[in-house]
Structures are given as C-alpha cells and as structure tokens.
Specification:
The protein is mostly helical. It is 85% helix and 0% strand. The chain is globular, with a radius of gyration of 18 Å.
C-alpha cells in the first residue's frame, strides 16, 4: 500500500486548484462569442488584426484543455509546463502592451510621485 506524505497531498491540491482556475477561465472565454475575446486581444495593440481571430479562437481552448488535463492528471508535468508558459506569455503581453502604449511610464511617474511625498 502506498503511503501519502503531506507534501504529496499539497501538490495534489495545488494541481487540482490550478487546473480548475485555468479550466474555468478558458471555459468562460470559450462560451462567449469569439468577437468578445478578439476585442480584448486587439486592445493590447500588439498583434496584427489578421492574427486576432486565430488567437481568440485557439487560446481559450488551449487554456481549457490544459486545465482539464491538469485536473485529470493526464501528463501533469507537460500540462503544468504549458500553463506556465501560457501564463508567462500573458505577463509578457501585458508588459509589452504597457510599454508600447506608454502606460508603464505613466504608472512609474505616479508611483515616483507617491513615494517622494
């Protein structure tokens, strides 16, 4: 009989929780009209218009499928790696959008002003 350590139970709980977070987020985007998510993609002003529809169609399903894989324990390391890369790409996209639109400099100026008070 296999014994479970507390760390195994914590990893299992974290895997299930993160799987549900990503599966739910992907599901919410997938059931909405694709034009809604396409508008969000276009708001970042990073990708050309021609890429916005394929991204809006593909990304929610990728998020949903990888989240379900993580919940089910199907290739959990690959699923976690895929979701980690997806999260990293979201952070990079948001950062690039802020830098491109100049919002990053506005936020930095506000923070500098608040810190110097």
């Amino acid at each position: 009989m296999k014994t479970f350590k507390k760390s195994n139970i914590l990893w299992f709980a974290a895997r299930i929780f993160l799987g549900f977070v990503f599966a739910y987020a992907g599901f919410q985007k997938a059931v909405e009209p694709v034009q809604n998510f396409q508008a969000v993609v276009l708001d970042y002003e990073i990708f050309p218009y021609a890429w916005s529809m394929p991204i809006a169609i593909f990304m929610p399903w990728l998020e949903l499928i990888l989240g379900v894989f993580l919940i089910l324990g199907f290739m959990p390391r690959w699923s976690a790696l895929g979701l980690g890369l997806l999260s990293l790409s979201f952070v990079a996209l948001i950062t690039a959008s802020y830098i491109k639109l100049g919002d990053f400099l506005k936020v930095a100026a506000v923070l500098e002003r608040e810190v110097s008070i």
